[in-house]
């Protein structure tokens, strides 16, 4: 067995499904060369750009005909199989997690669809899928939020290096906010006082570090159905209709001045007869005021305290709780407004001015700017039309709903033990000092809830340090294993490693090094080794070598250099012989009821990735460093964004002796789970040779 472990997750949204492939070092191999700091860290998860692939429509479209979902899934399964080494497929878990679209299906249709998906995957692949209920499921919004919380804190480094993320009061984790088209989620670890007061409202999350020790976190997570941007807009339009009952023209301050649309936001020529239409006035302040009642803050609160719609949320201490927001929080602050700057700090005053000036512009002027690609080729008329309402909704949810302090206006006073100088130095240029920041990627990885799921699974595959241990996963905040506890994965058998790395992995590692090193001698040495492997290995592996190294060499081309193909060893000829797959992908759309109004777009290049929220409302739009810089008319954005590049935290340690009791945020636990050791049967694995020169393997 090689040194890498692999995992596959299918994010099944309402308008499309996206497959993610992740890999991490086998825990036995990782421990061989691990430093003391790394022994206290979680598994180091890796993902390359071509490890993700999307297709459409969503699996929910097969609710009435579940038997037809198989061929739809095959393309996604084939993509995963093209990445995971064939001799490791049997030890690679596969998960399909359905969100918004499938949640709307009737329970019987859900059961039939998920059952068909599991049966098809078991029949057509050798991926590890022993438990359909655990591996193929519809996840609630709370679970989605928890996985997102894990992903964000994992990428920020707060799990592995808590000493670099001290926010005061022994608190080192970040809160997580997610907003899509149909719902919004929040997940955070309350301060110690609130954690003790609301212990029954928290989820107990247990993970395991490389040394086999367990670590626990107490996290609050909830979801607000109907509080995504699309459903909020639908409720807003209904409120305008009530305000102007019987009128043909309904004044809408959340639309740019001069824009007239149907109630559904379609062009005026789509209006039918005397049907009412929306007439934009471009008055952003009035828009913010009219949107505020949609928060439903006056709803009865059965369990104090509450934030929105009468839903209980423990009090948030913004002295220690610093939040990152993904999906619509990122798109709405960056898609039109300075999206060329990555992970820039959010400034309420500057952002509000930018949106106000944009929304006050005449629609004809905005439309001309869109046609001239003034805000990038991914910003179309619909994007520009929606941004004023989205911005007002985001501002209301953040500041009036959740209570995030407005930077510069009501910034919180930090509590005792808060070291502002150290915090500033630790998070220089990232803005994580502030109560809120929108992010898309951290350390070049997208903040996706699927990553959180895989981090949890990988942690669960580390053998415990004691003969008995409590399982990795999450559930109610009680002692032992609560009845609702969800284990991280069902493969409890550690996968052994061989004495040598597989030749495939060795070649891939050399190709990775070639990308970071220079000099003809090293490159020649690498090519000689790959050629030896090419001659003596099976045809199936040769195909894998060529695909991997070709991709690496293409990445090594200087920007702007012409593509060379045709007759080279890794050129067109081998492309035709061995096949080539595209790494282009976009994040799928999940906007609940409004999903039918949208369609997934195609990415233009590997450099321009489109990303949507967990239940996002945008499609075919790009963000990030490669997006053209914006030139928004009538305002200056210099004070809003800091163009300095992001420096993500990459620490590899986790808190050690400074543990708290169960009312705190993190504790070390003793082991109680019986470890099932043993070597798995792997009759399908190829014979391992000590050297490729000893004897050639038999050809297919």
UniProtKB/TrEMBL annotation:
The active site is at residue 144. It comes from the Eukaryota. The gene is YND1. Residues 600-623, 675-700 are annotated as: Disordered. Keywords: ATP-binding, Hydrolase, Membrane, Nucleotide-binding, Transmembrane, Transmembrane helix. Pfam families: GDA1_CD39. PANTHER family: ADENOSINE/GUANOSINE DIPHOSPHATASE, NUCLEOSIDE-DIPHOSPHATASE MIG-23. ATP binds at residues 181-185. Belongs to the GDA1/CD39 NTPase family. Signal peptide: none annotated. GO terms for cellular component: Golgi apparatus; membrane. This is Golgi apyrase. The lineage of its organism: Eukaryota, Fungi, Dikarya, Ascomycota, Pezizomycotina. The chain crosses the membrane at residues 519-536. GO terms for biological process: CTP metabolic process; UDP catabolic process. It comes from Lachnellula hyalina. GO terms for molecular function: ATP binding; GDP phosphatase activity; ribonucleoside triphosphate phosphatase activity; UDP phosphatase activity. Residues 600-612 have a biased composition (Acidic residues). InterPro entries: GDA1_CD39_NTPase (IPR000407).
